[in-house]
Amino acid sequence: MSRLGTLGARLHRGEVGYDFIGKRMLWYGVSVLITITAALGLGLQGLNMGIEFSGGAVFSTPAAGVSATQAEQAAERASGHPALVQELGGGGLRIQISEVDTDRSDRIKAALWEELDIPAKAINADLVGPSWGEQIANKAWLGLGVFMALVVVYLAIAFEWRMAVAALVALVHDLTITTGVYALVGFEVSVGTVIGLLTILGYSLYDTVVVFDSLKESSRNILEQNRWTYSEIANRSINGTLVRSVNTTVVALLPVAGLLFIGGGVLGAGMLNDISLSLFVGLAAGAYSSIFIATPLVTDLKEREPRIAALREQVLAKRASAATPDGARAEESGGTDGVAVTAAAGPPPQPGEHGRDRTAGRRA
């Protein structure tokens, strides 16, 4: 078995573990810092909306003897607006200009014919009205709202409302970071970007539900024992699914990184950047939030429940008494209820072990 496989098995059995829950304030601080940076990018720089949302014209030309920079300068002189030029296969050009109507489109087409020495009939112009872009944006927001509502309802029914709230916070966290990165790097927001955002929300939710399911099973009979707190069981659930989350995230990131860095960066296929950047940032943020945000937040909410808080005090008090000489002698003699108080040093129970542990203690 490989080293990673051995580590995953040991994490699952509780032989080793990392204290994610105990250091949750550190993870919260990192997330707040990243979120503030993303929000500042959105507020100060804003998003570079594509013509699908703002309206404009797209001119496609056949192979021309000019560079993309020369074509961009010619388009800006002809339109009076910033232009975005991308090189297509076969030497063609794609010139995108925002806020252009039909009359101005014809004038720009004639100017490009003169400056680029390309026949006007060979230049294809596609116009997008701002009203159509507004409809697309409204439908995207509606789809996002419906998706969030369904997620909350499903998680509240399948698990509990605390997990639904934590998952919603994690999804908003991933959305904010992804859109903030778009604002900071200045990539264009297109329909492909919206598709990528919806895709990463589903992936982030999948990773979160895996941890929540493990936590639900491990804490099913938590009040029937007094050896582990809810935080410790939650920490065990994260460790048990850690290697799986890392493996699935890395495997998903590799092809997306190829699209972003090789397709968009090296080969110059700029249209791939729209969807690949949202997927790359969103997948990484989703894996982070499911481990460092969602589950610790569930723990904070759960331990405010009176019964869970009382259990935590009971477990800590029992461990404190076990650390004293009188507590050690009481354990050697069997204790008061037959449950070994020093067993807290061992791994938290697997699903369904709580009841068996208490029964075995009473028999002893």
What's the number of helices?
13
Helix vs. strand class: alpha+beta
**Approximately how much beta-strand content do the residues carry?**
5-15%
| H/E element order | HHEHEHEEHEHHEHHHHHH
Give the strand line-up of the largest sheet. 3-4-2-5
Biggest beta sheet attributes: 4 strands, antiparallel
The count of strands amounts to 6
The gyration radius over C-alpha positions equals 28 Å
Shape annotation: elongated
Percentage of helical residues? 55-70%
Mean pLDDT: 76
Unreliable stretches (pLDDT < 50, length at least 5) are 330-346, 351-364
Our measurement of the CA-to-CA distance between the termini, rounded to an integer number of angstroms, reads 38 Å
Quaternary status of these chains?
Answer: single chain
